[in-house]
């Protein structure tokens, strides 16, 4: 089976599993798991922050950051198609009692001018105070879009001007940095908090990281316990994260290359609509345009031929390249797409 639904479907490699079995563990709630401590030190250094913390999922990571940055009744600026707004089950309202203010970006990218217009007037008590700005890099629903560095810098300057923290949902941040050939710190220096997912393209089975100041991370640590995210002997999971960061970062370029190859091939198939120029990293969005076909039927027929893709909405489908998809898989998938939609 060629599973292109998401990079979350990756499975630990044999060498990653060996690293997990060798891990030294302790009680992380007491701060006594040496492997977790090592991972947190490693990620803090990687992202140029004072501290970091391991949490079970990317959704929890974002929600802990929102909780730590805000108070009930505050407003958070997000992009209309961001993960925080669409894919976290209304958690910001339920857990932090904040209101999300969605702005429509350009393929997920927000610009300073539109953000500034959305910042509430602090003097008007009818309005919720703008307490946080969130950006997503890369932007999933934008098609794996990379935030331009200069735009992040300008948003950071705007946020500082208004004394509003800037949070980056960096679940796929390393896809952006590998594609651009820059150090992660080039992005993270401009944000107050940042998340990083270990279980997508990096191939670990579980976990995300949050990085920020020591004071911020200690606040997050308390809320992690409150949200049920404090775990005990999790060095086995941390070991997978360490292995992923040591061995699976540079290879993200292979995922990007394969995604581009697939996109270019799909463009040549009459029953598929796609713009390969929009494929910047490992995520591909395309539409089924063959007469008599809809997206649901396309997913079912592809599955019969052992290719899995994700239906987003309407005619829109998504394919994501990752650690468990090789060059032969891509070529086979191209043939199957051609047979069905040519």
TrEMBL record:
It is an enzyme of class 4 (lyase). The keyword Lyase applies. The keyword Lyase applies. GO terms for biological process: glycine biosynthetic process; L-threonine catabolic process. It comes from the Bacteria. Residues 3-287 form the Aromatic amino acid beta-eliminating lyase/threonine aldolase domain. GO terms for cellular component: cytosol. The modification N6-(pyridoxal phosphate)lysine is found at residue 200. It holds the Pfam family Beta_elim_lyase. Its EC number is 4.1.2.48. This is Low-specificity L-threonine aldolase.
